[in-house]
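## retry 2 of 3
previous attempt timed out at serialization; input unchanged, resubmitting
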Amino acid sequence: MNATPLRARTRPPVARGDRIPDFTAPAAGEGTVSTRRYYLRRNLALVFAHRWPCAACQDYLRAIAGQIEALRAEVAEVVAVIPLGPEVGVGDLAGLPFPVALADDAEIHERYGLVSDDGRPLAGVIIADRTGTVYEVDLADEAHRLLEPEEIRSWLEFVSYECSECWHDRLPTR
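## retry succeeded, writing output
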């Protein structure tokens, strides 16, 4: 998988301290996926895939699915964003244990600055707190390397301790 180098992007990706752009998109199962649903409720790990189908992105989403309980234990939710091209089947995406937003090609990726000059969606992971403030942006390199699921969990743990409103969720109950 070849990701486009940062210098070739049409707009810079969201950066630390930015607010994530809100989106609502059809879900892989039923209904819709919306970032607003998690506002002030859950920290987010937004996982952006290359144009579907991408074998490396499929493997990455399965690896995250295997760690979903540990990720959710950090008062967080994973939301995958899959850019669909024409005539693409979604396969078993509805079976993933986290919300999967089906984007109209690179529409959502563009809002986050995750497209190449030629409009190809780029893969990446964005970690945000409950208010949508970005803490980490990790973009796939030429070898399609992204944060490991354990690194995502560590970021989500860090964010939950940084957020004063999140502390109360971590206090033991008597």
